[in-house]
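Structure request: DNA-binding transcriptional regulator, XRE-family HTH domain, Streptomyces qinglanensis.
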Amino acid sequence: MSGPQGSIRSMLALNLKRVRARRGLSISELSRRSRIGKATLSQLESGTGNPTIETVFSLSRVLEVPISDLLDTQRPAGLRVVRGEDVEVLSGEGVDLRPLQRIESGEAVFEVYDQQFRAGERRDSPGHVGIEHTVVQAGRLDVAVDGEEVELTAGDYVAFDAALPHSYAAAEGTVRSVLLLQYRTDQRLHPSTPHALLDADASPGA
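Returned structure:
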């Protein structure tokens, strides 16, 4: 995940261009599918844009790749400690995310985030790739998935197909939680090679 070796902005700029090229999409076509303006996409690819959670999740959904394929720097080796204060925050509507780690195990890939919902605000998502897991650490969180609603408190867990429309709302005060996004390895363009380490002239993937 993004960290001291690369900011979210710089890693998204690097990886977005490569993923888009491997999908065979022009900026105009990606703009049409994602409903993100061409000027905004150009800024993101040049590293001058200001990505939000909504933007990154929309690109993940349209390009059909995990978030980490857009934000990852390199795969960790050995002991790794991630200090929350050192991780760049990716902010969006009602929520702040800190990307902590990507874990590959067998046919599954997990992305681990520290997730904080701002008091009195709501985050809506039309859906994206993967399975979403949330564990509430503090506060009261309202979760709606495809019309079904549930309330979570500290210690509660919820999981669902992230392709379904879903929303979160901090029902009472600020809510702290851990978010895990789960993918199949075949949902990644290059399951064994981090995008940040790929050569720019590598041949397109499937």
